Amino acid sequence: xxxxxxxxxxxxxxxxxxxxxxxxxxxxxxxxxxxxxxxxxxxxxxxxxxxxxxxxxxxxxxxxxxxxxxxxxxxxxxxxxxxxxxxxxxxxxxxxxxxxxxxxxxxxxxxxxxx
Length: 115
Prior knowledge:
Layout: H1 4-25, H2 29-49, H3 55-80, H4 89-113
């Protein structure tokens, strides 16, 4: 069975890597590094959650991913609002899709763990 969130986070990470390479070509190293770390951490935590030791650990990993989404949004807003940065709206769209799924997974997991 296909795991949508795993696939979306891998796709997003690959797109982030491509975007960061564009930033590095333009010598935007600090933002590139920050964006790369926070954005790829989303998928890393989602993947880690697949082997969580408990329901609480599973939820915790997804909450970390949600925090990384917020940080990634921040870096993308800076990129979007800086004139000398490449266009990144497509990354914001992908990130929003991931955020909706992760939010749903967290709320569903909390509901099922309290029953």
